[in-house]
Write a structure and sequence with these properties.
Blueprint: E1 5-7, H1 14-30, E2 51-52, E3 60-67, E4 73-80, E5 94-100, H2 111-119, E6 123-127, H3 144-160, E7 163-173, H4 175-186, E8 190-196, H5 202-207, H6 214-224, H7 232-243, H8 247-255, H9 263-269, E9 272-278, H10 286-295, E10 300-305, H11 323-337, E11 349-352, E12 359-362, E13 371-376, E14 386-387, E15 397-402, H12 417-424, E16 429-431, E17 441-444, E18 453-456, E19 459-466, E20 471-480, E21 485-496, E22 505-510, E23 514-517, E24 523-529, E25 544-549, E26 556-561
Parallel strand pairs: 5-6, 5-7, 7-8, 8-9, 9-10, 10-11, 14-17
Antiparallel strand pairs: 1-12, 2-3, 3-4, 4-6, 11-12, 13-26, 15-25, 16-21, 17-24, 18-23, 19-22, 19-25, 19-26, 20-21, 20-24
Length: 562
């Protein structure tokens, strides 16, 4: 049986926390500070190259216009190592790293990384993705045009820089992370990629549990509005997503933009894939990425830390030391240069455990948990919570709630919830005794004498009886202290449709994956309700929804444990 290797995180100083908090705030507002209107016409295909004359021993930097196959021009930055920089082959060619900019960002996003890469002996080409800022075209959301652009940028770099065609990699954040994985699927010249805060499955990100993730979609649309030009297709898909209209078409659109759809291509290319993500990513949940990771068969590494979308990588954009980017650089060094040390098979998965910050390394994802605990759900009373796994409750029970009403338990606010967990160890919090039992079913365990180590995705099984044919349930798992204050460990939605009103049906809900050590003396609490501001639920307001258990089909919470 594989065992993990645990290390301790160094304590963060107040200055680091303040800097991180400032950067997180900037993430939320920075996209609205665009200086070029989204409706502005694309810049001319040719512009003078502005070259910063490099001093001896310093990398050079220049701006470039890169024409792609359909005539669109992408704005780019090119960083070239100074002559004599180690890393060149016998012909003076350096490994190439292509960096697509993030959603709503431009080619200047990675200036700090480009300089660092060039100083380390890489040609770095960062470009503004089509449809954003002064790049031409319209936003394609990692569609066929975006994928074709990746190959065009590589072609241009091979023709206009001393780049080695045998040593090509990609690095990207957010949209750039999704594009690096799509590039790995469609261009076999790419040998290694590092995708940070990206997606493996865009459908699961926007529509997990058959539930529309509207708050995240609205934020992405708000970031795009001042910085990019929507294509008609993207505009239609976004409108349909918000309206809950023609969802099979939206799913097909998202599937074509999901690296998971093309994982066999990535495996056939044997591309070395590095993935970094945050437990609380409110745009692209961690479960969609771990599912994608498990399907990869080539060289691969996964790192998961507390945080929200792109908050783990933010400090690096200012050129500050950053563990995520440091790992990405090591990955490139290893697979493009043959240096940088070997991550090794026992380090293919690295988890930063919440809330204590311990690091654990595993040989593969299956090794993170070694056993499961099955906690039987008893009958919740109107004032007192039933016991998880309690034997006092009758084998058959039902608990009714008023549907479509918010109990106060929720997944938090997109971009903010995971960031607060990263900076202040403060995920979405509730006072459990104050949750209205008319809107939520609540269960609590007895206090744990020793800390259980939750690793993976907890699952809930119950019977549901609803007054309407369509509905949604939201599950929340909390860490509850002696005062009844519950901190969110994980959550997820699950919807249903076409059920016969008044007839019970089984429902299975898989919470988003996590790594969490419950402190000794604390309780676990499970909450089920039918409304969450982060999502578009289907349960009609005021309708009745009952959760229940039968002798033949008991309700239970299943916990994967280390």
């Amino acid at each position: 049986m594989a065992r993990s290797r645990r290390t301790h995180r160094r304590p963060h100083g107040h200055r680091h926390r303040a800097t991180t908090a400032l950067l997180i705030t900037a993430l939320g507002v920075g996209a609205g500070l665009a200086t070029a209107p989204a409706s502005a016409a694309p810049a001319p295909a040719h512009r003078p190259a502005a070259t910063a004359t490099a001093q001896l021993g310093h990398p050079s930097f220049r701006l470039a216009d890169i024409p792609v196959k359909d005539g669109t021009v992408l704005k780019a930055d090119v960083f070239t190592p100074a002559p004599g920089t180690p890393g060149a082959d016998r012909k003076g060619h350096y490994p190439l790293v292509v960096q697509p900019a993030s959603w709503g960002q431009n080619d200047l996003e990675y200036v700090a990384q480009g300089k660092q890469l060039a100083a380390a002996g890489y040609i770095a080409v960062t470009y503004t993705v089509r449809g954003f800022w002064r790049s031409g075209g319209q936003v394609d959301v990692a569609g066929p045009k975006d994928v074709s652009d990746i190959s065009s940028v590589i072609d241009w770099a091979l023709a206009h820089t001393p780049a080695d065609r045998q040593r090509i990699g990609m690095v990207g954040l957010s949209l750039g992370g999704g594009l690096t994985l799509m590039g790995a699927a469609f261009d076999p010249r790419i040998k290694a990629v590092a995708a940070m805060s990206g997606w493996g499955d865009l459908t699961h990100s926007l529509y997990s549990g058959g539930t529309r993730h509207l708050q995240a979609a609205a934020l992405l649309a708000a970031i795009q509005a001042p910085t990019g030009r929507r294509s008609p297709e993207y505009g239609r898909m976004l409108a349909d997503l918000f309206a809950g209209r023609d969802m099979p078409k939206v799913v097909r659109w998202a599937d074509t933009r999901s690296p998971a759809t093309y994982v066999n291509r990535i495996n056939a290319h044997r591309t070395a894939v590095f993935l970094a993500h945050a437990w609380g990513d409110s745009f692209f949940n961690p479960s969609q990425l771990t599912g994608f990771y498990q399907r990869l068969t080539g060289p691969k590494r996964l790192e998961l830390r507390p945080g929200d979308h792109a908050t783990q990588e933010l400090t690096s954009l200012l050129g500050l030391d950053n563990p995520t980017w440091k790992s990405a650089r090591r990955w490139l060094d290893q697979h493009l240069k043959g240096t940088g040390g070997d991550h090794g098979p026992r380090q293919s998965v690295d988890l930063e455990v919440r809330p204590n910050g311990h690091h654990e390394n595993y040989p593969d994802w299956r090794a993170i948990s070694t056993r499961t605990a099955h906690l039987r759900l008893g009958s919740p009373g109107p004032l007192e919570t039933g016991a998880l796994g309690g034997t006092a409750a009758a084998p058959g029970w039902q608990k009714s709630v008023v549907g479509g009403t918010d109990s106060g338990a929720d997944g938090g606010i997109a971009l903010l919830a995971g960031a607060l967990d990263q900076v202040a160890a403060l995920p979405p919090t509730v006072i459990l005794p104050l949750l209205p039992r008319s809107s939520a079913a609540v269960w609590q365990s007895a206090p744990y004498a020793s800390a259980p180590h939750l690793r993976g995705a907890a699952r809930v099984h119950t019977q549901v009886t609803a007054a309407a044919p369509d509905g949604t349930v939201f599950g929340y798992l909390y860490d509850v202290n002696a005062l009844g204050v519950g901190k969110l460990i994980s959550h997820a939605p699950q919807s249903w449709s076409g059920k016969k009103p008044g007839r019970a049906f089984p429902l299975d809900l898989s919470l988003f994956t996590t790594a969490y050590d419950l402190p000794a003396g604390h309780r676990l609490a499970l909450v089920l309700d039918t409304k969450d501001p982060m999502y578009a639920g289907r349960t009609p307001r005021g309708s009745s929804v009952s959760f229940g258990s039968t002798t033949a089909d008991p309700a239970e919470l299943t916990l994967p444990l280390r």
